[in-house]
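@channel sequence for tomorrow's demo:
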Amino acid sequence: MSARRSRRLALAAALGIVALLLPACAGLPTSGDVAVGLKLGESPQDVDVLPVASGPIAGAGPEEIVEGFLEAGITTSDNWDTAREFLAPALQRSWAPSAGVSIDVGPEARTLSSTVPEDEVEQADTAEVQVQLDLVASVDGAGAYSGAPGDSSVPFALERMDDGEWRITQAPDGIVIDEARFPKVFEGYPLQWFDSSWSRLVPDMRWFPRRQSPATTVTQALVSGTPSEWLDPAVQTAFPGDVQLAQDAVPITGQVAQVALTRPASGLDQTTLARMRTQLQSTLKAAGVNVTQVRFSVDGRSLDAGVVELAGTPADVGTLVLRNGEFGRIVGDEISPIPDISEQIVAIPQPILAIDVGIDDSYAVVQLDDGHVYRVAKSGRDELDARAGLVEPSLDPFGYAWSVPEGDPQAVQASGSDAAPHAVANAWPSASSISDLRVSADGARVAAVIVVGGQRWVVVAAIVRDSAGVPTELGDLVQLFQLPEPSTGLVWLGPDRLAVLASPSSPRLVLQTVGGPGSSETAPVDAISISGARTPAGVRILGAAGQLYAHAGSAWREVTEGITVLATRAGE
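structure tokens (generated this afternoon):
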């Protein structure tokens, strides 16, 4: 029985309790045009209309005013001007809506209680209203999303104004939006940071109010911001701290983003300028902004900024399988071998449990039925890890094979092409066991399924490397969601999503954005393993009897059978 089939974990809710509304220590960008936003890759014809809330109704009581104020969080135009109508004049000026977002189940789950009974409202001049929320997640002032399930109580104070209408005099900073409408009001934008080698870009998802053109929003967040705290040990920015935007807008002329910078930018060297331009152009592209290039200027004079060459994205080789003594890419019912490794893999006499292929197809790591991990290349096969109870191995883009025993999650090691193991420190210090481990395509992040305090979690952490690219330690882990049931696979889907094949008794595929919300769908009834891809459409699932499944709209279809091993590829 394979390690994958004998251990795993599945989904439930998001993580840890955080405060409902966060302090106004930073703000969501509110400059630039506010209009209907586009989903990534969406055309203008497909756009959804932003939800719009109404202002206060004459004669409304304290509870109705608070209800209306909470509802007005969905209308972001003019810096939440509609929500401010529910506030007393002094609070209108000081309230900071961009301090954070609390995402709850919805208005139907909110409970309001007032200190003034309904039959005494006409005689009262002050009131306090307590709101009980059923939280799902939160977004902080920098746009970073995190799970935050649980109840939260929020106090409001109100007074009757001179015109006889009730208005809020005390309220927490930030807004409340229900989970159903959150993606209609806010959009996820993956800011791009360089890895430690300056050769790859690493996404960091941020959520800002949807806009027709997010160019200003994401440029401000990138130039003036910092990476998420958990990701910071593995990434860096090309923008020096003393370089800022010189104006609060990024106009686009002829698909060229015109970015005015402060004067310190004029003294930067060509390498730094090229990295800055590459980082920003990639961020704008990832955000769905229709630009072909970025042009920097200082005091109206253009800066000569080139671009840097990044590590190339490997060709999509499709689905890799082992079937009837053949290993390679399956197209239709034919298998095309991989020149440097297919012959060596099929020549292995022992049963193979798992195969992970390197990004350039010149090597792979395999796990045999004795649980040991080997590196396979044209030159032969080298044993990398013979410890007992290893989970399936994972290759990173630098050629290191990651392995760890299920019962000793802190004993992570990464072995290079010389087969020498390197201990990776600070690996899941609070975990009692681990069942899955996958390194991302950029090599800066690792995802895992671990058990902490008797609870199963899908988590991520940053990978810290030395100057030679050797992984040395992990950063602090971030819990993405809890798994109440076993799972049978964990893979990456593109640069910023994970997929978990969960619940063997009633399989489902859980898709989770790293730094965003998740979703799930039904998987084939006999699903036992999964391979990743660059998009959800490329996901493949293996059935217990060797059937290979692919997406067919919202369903799954069997595309072939007789598969012994559904292989994976580094970073997927």
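heads up for whoever presents: The chain has a mean pLDDT of 90.
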